[in-house]
Amino acid sequence: MASACGGGCPNPKPTRSGKCPIDALKLGVCADVLANLLNLKLGSPPVQPCCSLINGLVDVEAAVCLCTAIKANILGINLNVPVSLSLLLNACNHKLPSGFQCP
């Protein structure tokens, strides 16, 4: 069967590999979002461009990426990893996979 794209369609399927397909250094933009969430400032923190980096990933990939950034202290602050991870994922409309622990 011929494809409507002639074989040139992008393949947006996530890998579900449990690996982070993003350069973790780029996730430093999530620091402001997390700082706002942890300081409980009134109003909604600006979640872009942090969430735009992980949108399109399955939840486990998003969690692995954010774990990598948090554990490597790329965000520049000492954090409680499970709480921080959950806050960031929720802010970006992702869910922490059941039983997930940072590698």
Automatic annotation (TrEMBL):
Keywords: Signal. Residues 20-102 form the Bifunctional inhibitor/plant lipid transfer protein/seed storage helical domain. SMART domains: AAI. Transmembrane segments: none annotated. It holds the Pfam family Hydrophob_seed. Belongs to the plant LTP family. PEARLI1 subfamily. This is Bifunctional inhibitor/plant lipid transfer protein/seed storage helical domain-containing protein. It comes from Linum tenue. The lineage of its organism: Eukaryota, Viridiplantae, Streptophyta, Embryophyta, Tracheophyta.
